[in-house]
Structures are given as C-alpha cells and as structure tokens.
Amino acid sequence: MRAVLTAVIAAIEAAAVALAGFVLVAVPVVLVWWLTFELGADPSEVFDIAAAGWLLAHFVPLSLELSPEAALGFGLDPEALSFTLSLAPSA
C-alpha cells in the first residue's frame, strides 16, 4: 500500500512540475498576445506557440513550414520552405 501511495504522490508532483514549466513559457506568450495583438489572434494558435516553445525548451525538434507568401515576406524566393528547428544541449 505504501508503494502505491508513493507512486501516486510522485505522479502528482511530476504533473505539477510539468504544468509549472509550461506556465513559465505560456505567460510571456500570453502577455505578447495581449499587449501586441490586443487579444486579436486565435487563442488556439497562441496555445500552439506556447506548446511549441515548451517542447523546444525540452530539446524536441520542431518541423516548420513557411508558405510562399510568408517566405516572400522574409525576402526569400516565393516558394514553400520547410525546415527543422532544434536546440543543442549545452552540457
């Protein structure tokens, strides 16, 4: 019985730590959404950006795609662009 209780408490702590880490990434994203876009963007896109930032902070590579219009806006050739973004561990 004691091992089960320890496992449940450890699972609750792990979920709390993961949630705290996500909140550390999500709060600045929500502040930018609020102050820059005046809550005009789609909330699901804001959540996706926060989740992508959280995953990137945990060294999960992200696959990104730019539409031809977005590539042209960055001064690139007007064709679709696909690439992977990842961070290298610092240790």
Radius of gyration: 18 Å
Oligomeric status of the shown chains?
A: single chain
Sheet having the most strands: 2 strands, antiparallel
Number of strands: 2
Report on the architecture of this protein.
α1 crosses α2. The chain is mainly alpha-helical and 91 residues long. The protein contains three helices and two strands. 1% of the residues are buried. The chain has a two-stranded antiparallel sheet with strand order 1-2. The radius of gyration is 18 Å and the shape is elongated.
Fill in the keyword field for this structure.
91 residues, mainly alpha, two-stranded antiparallel ribbon, 2 strands, elongated
Please specify the SSE layout and strand pairing.
Layout (H helix, E strand, L loop, with lengths): L1 H36 L5 H15 L4 E5 L1 H6 L7 E5 L6
Antiparallel strand pairs: 1-2
Helix pairs in contact: 1-2
Quickly describe the structure.
With 91 residues, the protein is mainly alpha-helical.
